[in-house]
Amino acid sequence: MGTLYLVRHGQASFGADDYDQLSERGHEQAVRLGAYWRERGLQFDAVLCGTLRRHEQTLAGIAQGLGGAPQALSVPQLNEYDSLALIRAVRPSPLPAPATPELYRQYFRLLCDALAQWMGGTLSPEGMPGWEQFRSGVHGVLEQVRQRHAGHNVLLVSSGGPISTAVGEVLSTPAEVTIALNMRLRNSAVTEFSIGPKRLMMQTFNSLAHLDGPQYEGWATHA
């Protein structure tokens, strides 16, 4: 039985004009994850990656630490939802930059509210697919992995939205639980599914084993 390793991208540039760019810490997280796997002799038979810049940069960092990786298949269905479009749909007026803890919490309260409405079919953010189309895209990727890669180790690099959706598909969680899982996912965290011929089964969630140790204190981030 193989394993699907779902990795959330490293720390990006939250609050900056261009979020879709790894921070220096985000790059370090990705390289460390690859090195952790290299130390344990882990190799991948296939790699799937979203097409956002932070996905590709995370994969490049993992490959650097790992000492190489198979050619990645670019999969747009692994791209994140548009959080700004979601927030604009529930709050049309401009949102202040999240420069304080309270503004940071306000941003994520609005996002969770918008996600719940989008997933419930009562919100249609501009330029975004409906929830069922988004969910179906993630489901299709999981089915592709199950059908093609039983017995293999597969690396998948994506974002919190698709990864929490994948967990929701495997565990049949209600929308509010999927949203809560989404908000808990940490940068460069690893979630593992065993790949069986009939189904995927979750083994671990949101693990940062590669950041254990005093030398990595302060490396755990969420955005």
Automatic annotation (TrEMBL):
Q: Which InterPro entries match?
A: His_Pase_superF_clade-1 (IPR013078), His_PPase_superfam (IPR029033), Mito_Ser/Thr_phosphatase (IPR051021)
Question: Which Gene3D superfamilies does the record match to this protein?
Answer: Phosphoglycerate mutase-like
Q: Name one Pfam family in it.
A: His_Phos_1
GO terms (molecular function) for this protein are: hydrolase activity
UniProt keyword terms in alphabetical order: Hydrolase
Cited PANTHER family: PHOSPHOGLYCERATE MUTASE-RELATED, SERINE_THREONINE-PROTEIN PHOSPHATASE PGAM5, MITOCHONDRIAL
Q: What is this protein called?
A: Histidine phosphatase family protein
Organism of derivation? Pulveribacter suum
